Amino acid sequence: MADSVDSALKSSSDIKSVQAQSSPATDTTPSQQTQTLPIRESKSAKSPAPSENQTGKNKDASKPPAAGADAAVPAGADKPLTPAELKKKAKAEKAARRAREKLAKESGGAGAAGSSAPGPGQGRPPATPKKDAAGGGASQKGQKAAQPRRGSAPTGQTAADEPTKKEDKSVAVFGHLYGQPRRTTIAGAGKEVHPAVLALGLQLRDYVVCGSSARCVATLLAFKRVIESYTTPLGTSLSRHLTTHLSHQITYLSTCRPLSISQGNAIRALKLAIASVDPSTPELSAKATLCEFIDNFIREKITVADQVIAGSAAQKVQDGDVIVTFAGSSIVKQTLLTAHKQGKRFRVSIIDSRPLFEGKNLARALANAGLDVQYSLVHAISHAIKDATKVFLGAHAMTSNGRLYSRVGTALVAMSAKERAGGVEVPVIVCCETVKFTDRVALDSIVVNEIADADELVSAQPLQQVTGLVDPVAPAKPDNKKGGKAASSAPKPDPSASSLNPSSSPLSNWKENPNLQLLNIMYDVTPAEYVDMVVTEMGSLPPSAVPIVHRMSTNL
């Protein structure tokens, strides 16, 4: 009985304590509800304004609960975000992620851990008040730690991680000539490009096929193979589709090396021949007609033209002449060989230049034919031109204003011949086919030119013997029959050979020098007043008659 009375008294005391604890909350609950509900509904709907007495009574009581109301509301009680807000939130998250990645890259390994520490509140509005309260402080600390102070020097680690900006090694005057670099491989070539054209492009790039006439002939022969293997697609004609098919071949060749004037004229003539083919002509006969046109073009414009020019120019050579020529023109070589076959005795002085050294092949061919040849580089031009009686030059092109567009250094040779010491002018004769004539006008060698790789000027080629004579300083071969003496009699390496190594060149690391730029241009322009005569297959004419002959040759 006593135990039951004690338990009853204890339970009643517990009930009273619970009521005492809950009574303040119940007193403040109505005021909180009356104040929080209008605040949350004020965004969507306007609540009626309370009276002044009620406002005064609830003013002090409403401030503390209103400040902590958002913290007490669960995340699920928030209103769902609109599509515009979701999109804005996604953009903010993406921007924050990019900022963290950039911060990690700049600060390195140590900064990467610090950049991952900031919470989602870094750089974007919080999704919920809880996330803001949890990650806001950490994100602000991470941002303050990552951003350097204004006016302070950057840390060594950040400065080391920044990539160094590469200096532009192009010469500003010729900046418009620096386009897409030459193709180095056949990778990336279109499937429409013929294998013969692929091989030709690499040969043009490596100067295996060098010279305006040689490039023109090689291009036409490659296009002949393209036409022979061509098949007209269904629903079209040969005259319409073949031109498009050839355009892919031309584009590939131009990426390997810019087309020459003779190549452009030959391609233009071939396209006119394709356009003149009747669409009703059978495919086999049309292809045979085009192949015959290519053969006739090569024979008339280049092969026979070279023979006529060589015979006409050889008549200008007399006994006892000293002929000066520059580089290695094929038509000049044929002219000199023709004059030598006619029994004329003369001497040839070849002036050459880097980096192609085209004059070496010309000197070898003339020396093997029995001519007296002198070979020198362009820096010795004053000595080579001293005894000259005539100058024979080849041409890459002849412009409409009578100027000669040829290998760089040609203008220097022509000017030296006209203005040499002593006041005696040496006649300058240019041998050029009409296929190299153009209607363009060239005033200088800056507007139109070709830029080659500057590294070609740095690489040093090993010394080569021009003639076929035995080298007197060549080391003797060791005799393997003498046993141990073979090793002792082996020639010792020449210490001077290391100077021919391209890596030992003082310009091998020229790209790392911030104040050094190399220029390797291919052509220059010789003024018309330095040229006395232009020998073509149509006769000998002055430079001023070039546009007339060009118009006549294109209308034939």
Automatic annotation (TrEMBL):
Record flagged with keyword Protein biosynthesis: yes
Domain of life per record: Eukaryota
Region (Disordered): 1-171, 471-511
Bias (Low complexity): 63-80, 485-509
Principal location listed in the UniProt entry: cytoplasm
Feature: compositional bias, Basic and acidic residues: 92-105
InterPro entries the record matches: IF-2B-related (IPR000649), IF_2B-like_C (IPR042529), NagB/RpiA_transferase-like (IPR037171)
GO molecular function, one term: translation initiation factor activity
Keywords tagged on the record: Cytoplasm, Initiation factor, Protein biosynthesis
Transmembrane keyword on record: no
Annotated GO CC locations: cytosol
Gene3D superfamilies the record matches: Translation initiation factor eif-2b, domain 2
Biased composition (Polar residues): 9-37
Family, as annotated: Belongs to the eIF-2B alpha/beta/delta subunits family.
Subunit details: Component of the translation initiation factor 2B (eIF2B) complex which is a heterodecamer of two sets of five different subunits: alpha, beta, gamma, delta and epsilon. Subunits alpha, beta and delta comprise a regulatory subcomplex and subunits epsilon and gamma comprise a catalytic subcomplex. Within the complex, the hexameric regulatory complex resides at the center, with the two heterodimeric catalytic subcomplexes bound on opposite sides.
Name of the featured protein: Translation initiation factor eIF2B subunit delta
Organism for this UniProt entry: Penicillium cataractarum
Source lineage: Eukaryota, Fungi, Dikarya, Ascomycota, Pezizomycotina
